[in-house]
Please model this.
Amino acid sequence: MEVNVKIIVKWGGKEYDVEVCENDSISDLKNCIHKHTGVRPDRQKLLNLKHKGKPPGDDCRISHLNLKPGFKLMMMGSLEADIEDVNKAPEGMSEVVNDLDIEDEEVAIENQEVYLAKVQKRIKDYNINMINQPRNGKKLLVLDIDYTLFDHKSSAETGAELMRPYLHEFLTAAYDDYDIVIWSATGMKWIEEKMKLLGVTSNTNYKIMFYLDSLAMISVHIPKYGVLNVKPLGVIWGKFDQYNSKNTIMFDDVRRNFIMNPKNGLKIRPFRQAHLNRDKDKELLNLTRYLKDLAAHCNDFTCVNHRHWEKYKPKKRSD
Ligand code: MG
Model:
C-alpha cells in the first residue's frame, strides 16, 4: 500500500502544502513543488533534507528520509520570470535608469538567490537574545529606532524630550495583538542604551520580544544606489514558524530597509527636530489605529498596500 507523506514547503515567506508518496523520489518531490510554486526543479535548493548526513540525490526515495508528518521543508529558488527580469535589467535601460524608482527593482532583489543565501546564513548564524517569548496567535511588529521612535540627532537633557509622541501608548496598544521586535542598523549596545533612555525597557505595559542589530542585516547591490545594508524579515521568519509574510509588518523611515520584503514594510514619516515637532507629531497615534484594523480585519498583510495606510478602510466582517 502506498503511504502519502505531507510536507510543508516554506518558500519566499509563504508555506505550501505538498503531498507525495513514500515511494516517490526527490525528483518527484521537486516536480510536485514546481507545480505548487512555479520554481523549476533544477532551480530548487531543498535546504534541510538530509540522507545519511548529506543532501539526498534526485533518485533517493522519500521513505529513506524518515520525515515526520508535517515536516517543514525550506526551499530556495527563483522563478524564471524573476531571473529574466534580473538578466534583462542592465540592457537597454541606460536611458531610463535614472527614472527608475527603487520599487521597480524590488521584485528582482527579494528573489535573488545570492541574497536569499545570505538570509539563510543569518538564520543559521545570528544569535537572538530572547528577552520575552513569542505568544501564541500574535502577529509580529518590527520597529526601527532612529527617526522612527525618536529623534537621535537633536540634543536634549532627557530621552523623553526626543521621544516620538505617543510612543508608550502605541507600544501598549500594539502589544495586544503583536509581538514586538526592535531592529536598528546600529550595534546592540546602542540599541539597549536607547531603549533604556526612552523608558521602553522599564515600561510594564508591554514587552519587547527581542532586539536585532546591524549584524542581522544583509548587503544587497542595486545598480542605481550601490551596496546597501537592508533588514530582511526572512531572518525572523526562518527562526520562528509563527511569523510569516501574512502576519508581519515593519515600520521604518527608510524604504530601502525593507527592499527584501517590500509588501511587509511601511515607510513611517521620519520624526526629526523633536523640539519643534513634539506637540504636532501624531504618526504613532494614527498608526495605532492602523495596526488594530489590520489585526482585526486582515488575514494577509501583503494584500494591503501599506503606502496608503491612512486611507485603509477594513472590509466589514460578515459576523
Ligand atoms: Mg531610521
